[in-house]
Amino acid sequence: MTPTLVLVDAGMVAGFRRSSLSLGQLHQALVHLARQHPEAQVAVVADPSLKWDLAPADQPLFEGDIIAQAIVCAPAGALDGTIGFLERAAASATNAGQRVVAFTDRALPGVSLGRLRNEGGKWVWDLEDVRTIEADAAATAAAQPRRRTRSRR
C-alpha cells in the first residue's frame, strides 16, 4: 500500500466558511483528520503572515504550534510563496513514492485535491474523492488578471 501524505493549508482550514480565522477550528479539524485517517502522514503548512491574521489570543498558540513542529511556515521569500512551497513539498513526496492529497483553496498542478466539509461539527476529510488539477496554458492564461481597455469606436 502506498503511503499517503496529506498537505494541509493551515490558513484555508482556519478560515473555512468563517469571516475570521480560528486556530481552534484548525486544531479541531486536524484532530478529526487524525481519527479518520490514522495511517496518513500529515503536513500542515502556513503562510508566515497567518500569525498576524489570527486573533491576538491565538498568536502565542500559533507560535507554540510552530515550536512543536505541528505547523511549518513557508520560508519568507519562498519562490512563488506558500503555494510554491506546497508544490515543491508535493513533488518531493511524490518522488519519494508517496501519494499526495492537498487541502487548499488553490490549484496545485498535478496534485490531487481532497474535499473538506463540516457536517454538524464533525470535520470530514475525503481523501478518496479527489480531483487532480492539470496545469495547461489555457488555465494559466485564465488565471492571469486582465487589463481593461477602452473600446475604440
Architecture overview:
With 153 residues, the chain is of the alpha/beta class. The protein has one domain. Helix content is 35%, strand content 25%. It is built from 6 helices and 6 strands; from the N terminus they run E-H-H-E-H-H-E-H-E-E-E-H. Strands 3-2-1-4-5-6 form a 6-stranded mixed sheet, with helices on both faces. A hairpin with a 2-residue loop joins strand 5 and strand 6. The longest helix is centred in the middle third of the chain and has 15 residues. About 3% of the residues have low confidence.
Span between N and C termini?
Answer: 64 Å
Task: Give the % helix.
Answer: 25-40%
Count the DSSP helices. Answer: 6
Work out the radius of gyration. Answer: 17 Å
Mean pLDDT: 85
In percent terms, what proportion of residues is strand?
15-25%
- When the domains are counted, the total is 1
- Write down how many β-strands occur, each being a DSSP E stretch of 2 or more residues: 6
Element order: H for helix, E for strand: EHHEHHEHEEEH
How is the largest sheet built, in terms of strand order? 3-2-1-4-5-6
Low-confidence region ranges: 134-138
Sheet bearing the most strands, described? 6 strands, mixed
Annotate the secondary structure layout.
Elements: E1 4-9, H1 10-14, H2 23-36, E2 41-46, H3 50-53, H4 59-67, E3 72-73, H5 81-95, E4 99-103, E5 112-119, E6 122-132, H6 137-143
Parallel strand pairs: 1-2, 1-4, 2-3, 4-5
Antiparallel strand pairs: 5-6
